Amino acid sequence: MKKVLTIAGSDCSGGAGIQADLKTFSAHGVFGMSVITAVTAQNTQGVFAVQDITRDVIAKQIEAIFDDIEVDGVKIGMVSQVQTIEVIAEQLSNYAPQIIVLDPVMVSKSGYHLLNPEAEATLIKELLPMAMIVTPNIPEAEVMTNSSIQTLKQMEEAAKAIFQMGAKNVLLKGGHLEEDSIDILFDGQEFSYFSSSRIATKNTHGTGCTLSSAITANLALGHTLNKAVSLAKEYITIAIQNSLSIGKGVGPTHHFYTLYKKAGLI
Ligand SMILES: Nc1ncnc2c1ncn2[C@@H]1O[C@H](COP(=O)(O)OP(=O)(O)O)[C@@H](O)[C@H]1O
Ligand SMILES: Cc1ncc(COP(=O)(O)O)c(N)n1
C-alpha cells in the first residue's frame, strides 16, 4: 500500500484540512498519515480560534514518520506561521521526498487568515521551489502575483508568473470564477486545461484541500502529473456534485460517494 502524508491544519468540523486530506487518501486506497501544524476551531460558518503547534513538535512529528516509514508522497496545506514553514522546509530538505504537492492555503472561505500574511513571502521562498506542483486558488494567485484575476487570460499570466517564482508546475484553480470551473496547469512550456461545468451548491468547504490530496494520492500511485490532475479533477467534481448539507453554512463535499454507491450503501 502506498503511504502518503499530509502536513496541514486540523479542521474539527471534518470538511477541510487534515480531516479532508485523510478521507481523500482513504478513498484512493493509499495509507494516510498526518503532521498537524495547527488546531483550528471552525465549522461550516467560520473559524473561531487557532492554536499553532510548536516548531519542535512539528519537527518531531515529521521525524517520527520519516525515520520509520517510507513516504510515497507529501501534501502541504495550512502552514500558519514563518517558523512553521521554516521547520517544514528544513525537515523536508533533509528527507527529500520526491513527491511534494503544495496547496498554498491563505484565507478560509469564511475570510479568516489561516496563513499569517507576514509569512506569505517565506512560503514562496522556502516551500514553492521544493514542490512538484503548487495549487493556488484565484485569491491566493492574486496575492502571490499582486494582480487581479478575472479572465482565463489573466489566469494564464498569473500561472506563468508563479512558475517564474520557482514552481515546477502550477495548477491555478478556477473554482472562484463565476461560470465554468476551469483549472489550468502550466509546466513552464504548455498549458493543460481541466474543466467541469459549475455545480450550483454552497457546499464547497474543503474543495482545495481535497483536490490537492487527490493529486498527491494519484502521484503516489504512479500516475503522470497530467493524469493525476485529471483524475483528481474528476474526483472533486463528483465530491462536489454529491456534497453534503451538513451544518448551517458552507457544507463539506462527499469524499466517498463512488465507493459508497458501489457498495450499495447509498
Ligand atoms: N461550484 C463548483 N463547481 C464545480 N467545480 C468547483 C466548484 N467550486 C470549486 N470547484 C473545483 O474545486 C476545486 C477546488 O477549487 P477552488 O474552490 O478554487 O479551491 P479552494 O478550495 O482552494 O478555494 C477546483 O478543481 C475547482 O475547479
Ligand atoms: C485547517 C484548514 N485548512 C484549510 C482550509 C481551507 O479550506 P478550503 O479548501 O475550503 O479553502 C480550512 N478551512 N481549514
UniProtKB/TrEMBL annotation:
Q: Has the keyword Oxidoreductase been applied to this entry? A: no
UniProt KW Nucleotide-binding keyword: no
Tell me which domain of life the UniProt entry assigns to the organism this sequence originates from: Bacteria
A GO molecular function held by the record: hydroxymethylpyrimidine kinase activity
Classification via CDD domains: HMPP_kinase (cd01169)
Task: Quote the EC number.
Answer: 2.7.1.49, 2.7.4.7
InterPro entries cross-referenced by the UniProt entry: HMP/HMP-P_kinase_dom, PM/HMP-P_kinase-1, Ribokinase-like
Its recorded reaction(s) are: 4-amino-2-methyl-5-(phosphooxymethyl)pyrimidine + ATP = 4-amino-2-methyl-5-(diphosphooxymethyl)pyrimidine + ADP; 4-amino-5-hydroxymethyl-2-methylpyrimidine + ATP = 4-amino-2-methyl-5-(phosphooxymethyl)pyrimidine + ADP + H(+)
Q: Which UniProt keywords apply?
A: Kinase, Thiamine biosynthesis, Transferase
Pathway of this protein? Cofactor biosynthesis; thiamine diphosphate biosynthesis; 4-amino-2-methyl-5-diphosphomethylpyrimidine from 5-amino-1-(5-phospho-D-ribosyl)imidazole: step 3/3; Cofactor biosynthesis; thiamine diphosphate biosynthesis; 4-amino-2-methyl-5-diphosphomethylpyrimidine from 5-amino-1-(5-phospho-D-ribosyl)imidazole: step 2/3
List residues of the Pyridoxamine kinase/Phosphomethylpyrimidine kinase domain. 11-254
Q: Which NCBIfam families does this one have?
A: HMP-P_kinase (TIGR00097)
Q: Which family does it belong to?
A: Belongs to the ThiD family.
- What's the protein name? Hydroxymethylpyrimidine/phosphomethylpyrimidine kinase
Give the species this sequence originates from: Desulfosporosinus nitroreducens
Lineage of the species this protein comes from: Bacteria, Bacillati, Bacillota, Clostridia, Eubacteriales
